[in-house]
């Protein structure tokens, strides 16, 4: 009787800890379960974020600037905690446990939020119609419950988002050409489910919150997340698992600490005298940049343990390859820094732009569109831009230039330019809205002006996100060392975090600087009393300046990459001995 040959996936285990059998684990079925939990995460997070500012202003009676900052701080914290989630997944928990634990945390947070919006004692009294300007703000205890709910949601989002895409790719074997092709399809479907979840959030969920019950809308988020967890756990036997390999953050810190310890050491001119333990085929040649870090690979007397044997303490000495991997991460930082401003402009689309729409006509016949649902044009712009790029631009570019579309740096640059242009258009639209406010009075709740004048800014910034998000993700994954793909994804997500935090900082600074002598300032307590057009204009100027700086950084990075490629070619062709690793 013939024995059945078992084909195992490379570096993957099943739920029992044995090598994963390809016929029983991985593939599209478990990957689809992972896509489902990502869909519910986006539905919950964006269903809360895009409409939260209207709740804070209309129900909790907070000032406009304060409400916008709460939303951006919430989103910023969510993405910043991706680093914590990634660290725990790489070092201790693994991606499967990280997803399950943090998804449960997010479920609890959305449940708390649903309860806090339902109970009358957790909200201030409704404003009196005869004196709308004398509304009582939410108390400290009422806000504490709200903050606790948002913090739990942020923690859950950060931990979940750090691992879900990586765990999805774990279900495919990179060494198998057929499965590798499926993995490439997974990235496209992953972004599609992210966009689909966002689209459902800004349409169906926002409508339920505004027209039926906000607590019902948040309750749907909690129930959907809990259901997604049960479905996710149901696939436990079918998943492929990877061992915890340790966090790249520790690797980076080890190189830095070793270099600082040897700060007074002289670097030898002969690279062969430096410490190296990597196999011949995976070594990285020493570069001329950031020479201080090379001191971590210098061998000194203290590095020898007893009997003249080299110490293996990574906090004292690092190989040349490890040092060069850290240098590769450092070279990503200028691009990282110049992409932060985009997410600051993005933040305005889910805060002030939604508040703008709430003061304007949003009717299509007898149906009134919820103000938060106007961001559907933002999401639609993303999906349309991606479709046009894939089906039109890539074929034309391939025929004309012989290349598969724009490079990742070109896509990032295009996204930055479109977002800067979007802020300039937003300033013009707000100037028009304020002219109507001046004509009909600052206390007018429903201005006789169509909210559809905001569509161009949604389209421009949305199209910008389509290019910059895919460009950033591609750049940080492909340009980072092989063992640091997870941390590079986390670094990419921190651009979103710092962008939201920068938005909060700008709003606070602008409010303080422009509020003097009894003036309301650019971002006043009520949007009709401020000069949001000036604030948008400031963001447009900063965005165009940032775009110029980005072009310089991108040119510097391309130049260095070309030099490294030339060096690698010389090594491959047995060029100058000084160029060999």
UniProtKB/TrEMBL annotation:
Q: Which GO terms describe its cellular component?
A: membrane
Chief place of localization: membrane
Give the stretches traversing the membrane. Answer: 70-89, 95-115, 190-209, 215-234, 332-349, 369-389, 409-429, 449-469, 490-510, 535-557
* Pfam families linked: PTR2
Q: Extract the PROSITE patterns matched here.
A: PTR2_1 (PS01022)
The record's family statement is: Belongs to the major facilitator superfamily. Phosphate:H(+) symporter (TC 2.A.1.9) family.
Family matches, as SUPFAM superfamilies: MFS general substrate transporter
Q: Name one GO biological process term.
A: oligopeptide transport
Can you provide one Gene Ontology molecular function annotated for this UniProt record? transmembrane transporter activity
UniProt entry keywords in alphabetical sequence: Membrane, Transmembrane, Transmembrane helix
The protein's name in its UniProt record: NRT1 PTR FAMILY -like
Q: How does it sit in the membrane?
A: Multi-pass membrane protein
Localization per record: Membrane
């Amino acid at each position: 009787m013939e024995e059945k040959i078992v084909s195992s996936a490379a570096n993957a285990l099943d739920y029992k800890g044995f090598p994963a059998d390809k016929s029983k684990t991985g593939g599209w079925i478990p990957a689809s379960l992972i896509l489902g939990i990502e869909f519910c995460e986006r539905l919950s997070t964006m269903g809360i974020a895009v409409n939260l500012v209207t709740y804070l202003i209309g129900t909790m009676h907070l000032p406009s600037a304060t409400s916008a900052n709460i939303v951006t701080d919430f989103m910023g914290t969510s993405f910043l905690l991706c680093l914590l989630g990634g660290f725990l997944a790489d070092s201790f928990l693994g991606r499967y446990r990280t997803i399950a634990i943090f998804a449960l945390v997010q479920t609890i947070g959305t449940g708390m939020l649903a309860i806090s919006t339902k109970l009358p004692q957790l909200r201030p009294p409704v404003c009196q119609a005869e004196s709308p300007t004398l509304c009582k703000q939410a108390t400290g205890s009422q806000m504490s419950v709200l903050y606790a709910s948002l913090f739990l949601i942020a923690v859950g989002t950060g931990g979940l988002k750090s691992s879900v895409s990586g765990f999805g790719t774990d279900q495919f074997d990179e060494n198998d050409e057929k499965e590798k092709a499926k993995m490439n399809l997974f990235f496209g479907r992953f972004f599609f489910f992210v966009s689909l979840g966002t689209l459902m959030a800004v349409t169906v969920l926002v409508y339920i919150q505004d027209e039926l019950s906000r607590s019902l809308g948040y309750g749907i988020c909690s129930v959907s997340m809990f259901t997604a967890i049960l479905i996710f756990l149901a696939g436990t036997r079918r998943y492929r698992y990877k061992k915890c390999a340790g966090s790249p953050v520790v690797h980076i810190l080890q190189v830095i600490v070793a270099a600082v310890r040897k700060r007074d050491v002289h670097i030898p001119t002969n690279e062969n005298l430096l410490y190296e333990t990597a196999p011949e085929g995976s070594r990285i040649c020493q570069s001329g940049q950031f020479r201080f870090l090379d001191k971590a690979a210098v061998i000194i007397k203290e590095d020898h343990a007893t009997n003249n044997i080299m110490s293996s303490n990574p906090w004292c000495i690092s190989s040349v390859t490890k040092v060069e991997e850290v240098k590769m991460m450092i070279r990503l930082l200028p691009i990282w820094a110049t992409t932060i401003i985009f997410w600051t402009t993005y933040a305005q689309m889910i805060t002030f732009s939604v508040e703008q729409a709430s003061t304007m006509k949003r009717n299509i016949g007898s149906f009134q569109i919820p103000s938060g649902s106007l961001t559907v044009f933002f999401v639609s712009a993303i999906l349309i831009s991606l479709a046009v790029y894939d089906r039109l631009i890539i074929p034309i570019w391939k025929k004309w230039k012989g290349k598969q579309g724009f490079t990742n740096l070109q896509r990032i640059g295009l996204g930055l330019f479109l977002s800067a242009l979007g802020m300039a258009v937003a300033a013009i639209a707000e100037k028009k809205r304020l002219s109507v406010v001046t004509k009909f009075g600052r206390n007018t709740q429903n201005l006789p002006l169509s909210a559809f004048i905001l569509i161009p800014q949604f389209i421009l910034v949305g199209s910008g996100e389509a290019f910059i998000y895919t460009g950033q993700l591609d750049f940080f994954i492909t340009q980072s060392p092989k063992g640091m793909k997870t941390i590079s994804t986390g670094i990419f997500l921190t651009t979103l975090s710092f962008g939201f935090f920068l938005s909060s900082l700008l709003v606070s600074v602008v409010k303080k600087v422009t509020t003097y002598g009894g003036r309301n300032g650019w971002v006043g307590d009520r949007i009709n009393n401020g000069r949001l057009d000036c604030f948008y204009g400031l963001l447009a100027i900063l965005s165009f300046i940032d775009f110029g700086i980005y072009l310089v950084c991108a040119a510097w990075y391309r130049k260095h990459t070309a030099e490294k490629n030339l060096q690698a070619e010389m090594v491959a062709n047995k060029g100058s001995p000084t160029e060999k690793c």
